[in-house]
Specification:
Layout lengths: L5 E4 L5 E12 L5 E5 L2 H14 L6 E7 L2 E10 L2 E6 L1 H7 L6 E8 L1
Antiparallel strand pairs: 1-2, 2-3, 2-7, 3-6, 4-5, 4-7, 5-6
């Protein structure tokens, strides 16, 4: 069971979200690791997407995992969003596939 996330309105009408999720590996042509944004927070992002997106539903965000912070974009997948977790971040934080991690996102 995942703990509930929190949402806070940020600067300039953006939003801050915190939640936990499992790191999973997408084994496509360009393999990558992701954490899925839970349904409640994804719904909030979808509601604000027209103000936050730069096209195709992709939303630029600032992410914090442990002591590491970076800029990336959320990708829509069905009704949810995916947070890409860079290799450098996984190595710096010692994160493995299948591990549950706490993330903080700042969008907008």
């Amino acid at each position: 069971m995942r703990p509930p996330g929190n949402i806070r309105r940020g600067r300039l009408g953006g939003m801050d979200l915190t939640f936990s999720g499992e790191v999973w590996h997408w084994r496509g042509p360009a393999p990558y690791f992701f954490v899925t944004v839970p349904p409640e927070q994804s719904a909030d992002l979808r509601a604000a997407a027209r103000l936050l997106t730069y096209g195709w539903g992709v939303i630029p965000v600032r992410v914090r995992l442990g002591a590491t912070e970076w800029t990336t974009s959320l990708f829509p997948k069905g009704e949810l969003y995916l947070v890409p977790i860079r290799k450098a971040v996984r190595l710096a934080e010692g994160v493995q596939e299948g591990e549950t991690v706490a993330l903080r996102l700042t969008a907008g």
